[in-house]
Amino acid sequence: MSKTLFDKVWDAHVVDSVPNGPQILYIDKHLIHEVTSPQAFAELEQRGIPLYRPQQVVATADHNVPTLNQHLPIKDALSRKQVDLLSKNCENHGVTLYGLGHPYQGIVHVMAPELGITQPGMTMVCGDSHTSTHGAFGSIAFGIGTSQVAMVFASQCLLLNKPKKMRIKVDGDLNQGVTPKDVILYIIAQLGTNSGTGYFVEYAGSVFEQMSMEGRMTVCNMSIEMGARGGMIAPDQTTFDYVQGREFAPKGEEWEKKLAYWKSLPTEEGAEFDQEYSFDAADIEPMITYGTNPGMGIPLSGTIPDSGDQNFEKALNYMGFNPGQSLVDHPIDYVFIGSCTNSRIEDFRQAAAVVKGRQKSPAITAWIVPGSQQVAKQIKEEGLQDIFEAAGFAIRQSGCSACLGMNEDKIPSGAYCVSTSNRNFEGRQGQGARTLLASPLLAAQTAIEGKLTVINSLEPAL
Ligand SMILES: CC(C)[C@H](C(=O)O)[C@@H](O)C(=O)O
Ligand code: SF4
């Protein structure tokens, strides 16, 4: 029987199966951060169980870290405690930590791919829902709860029911100004935030084949926002070129062996999915969200729909919007370009192309937050930092930052923020903050104009 990419990777990792029940899946890489690991370490210590394979675990500090003056002690006591505890736990259990100040520190979903830790055909987990990001490499990657973190610490395995399979195809050529972020916001707006429940999604079709690794990560990152366990894209030459030569990528003979295996992974002709959708690239326009879940998105050229539903009304109330309203020309207060969805070098190159030679609007506070120390270094080396600073943007240090209100970077109550992150829930960026999800391109343009404007009103200046 023809197999899907998902089947091939899953089946290669099954250690044992309960007849008609769950399976024991071997986990190749376990990523951890300061928020969801402390209880798991504590559980292990209470039960006197050692970490089974500490060399398969990699840690970083990202959620609670400040993005200014990272060389100074963290001011917030709770954040400081969590970050310190991560260091202590990693030291006690022999886990490699890229903590604050380390040149490899960054948002877990940015730093692992750029170091070559993420590779095709792997199973990867992290106590973090956006672990789906790593599926961009053709790996099975998904978020787990804290008790599962403990399970993987103790056994390097998880007891799981095999999810169902969905394929989402997008074919054709993308319109000008349409980025990977718009593609995934469009898909979620079309299918809804529960459409993926119980599924693992494979993204296929010419749009994803032509997409960069950064773009594929943006798409897979948001799979969780349609309820899916994860998303994946078949590894191809783009993937191999990205991985090759990175710090922890296989080298020499090992590379050749792995490459031959990775090339065997793509879904075969005739393989079956439990659910399939296809879309035409030509229908996708630059997107913006207007509500309080990532599925509440429209093309910026469109108008807010009217659903009559109570939750819908509540969401619009929170956002200060009305049904039928256009968001074009709506004034904005903050622009945040960052998060594990859009804080990679390509995102900042795109934003810088719009910003170059221009000034941000005085009405806007604009934050550029690189996803990792390495991205921060690259921004500097490529001259992007100068472009942003000359335009009045603030460049911060790497971390989750204003993606969620767990650190000092918060959006004030009532303020509108065009954000390149993945969630626009009530209070996500700070109590009362109003989040509008968009691409780095639209975010950059908004910072210049001080309001939402149809993309292409500013041609890239590069
Ligand atoms: C803090 C963490 C557990 C959480 C997640 O799982 O996604 C966070 O990263 C988020 O984006 O909301
Ligand atoms: S950047 Fe945002 S979505 Fe990503 S891991 Fe951090 S908090 Fe979660």
UniProtKB/TrEMBL annotation:
The name this protein carries in UniProt is 3-isopropylmalate dehydratase large subunit
Q: Which gene encodes it?
A: leuC
Q: Tell me the superkingdom of the source.
A: Bacteria
CDD domains under this entry?
A: IPMI (cd01583)
Instruction: Give the Enzyme Commission number.
Output: 4.2.1.33
Residues bound to [4Fe-4S] cluster are: 340, 400, 403
Q: Name one Pfam family in it.
A: Aconitase
Q: Which family does it belong to?
A: Belongs to the aconitase/IPM isomerase family. LeuC type 1 subfamily.
Q: Which HAMAP family match?
A: LeuC_type1
Q: Under which main EC class is this enzyme filed? A: lyase
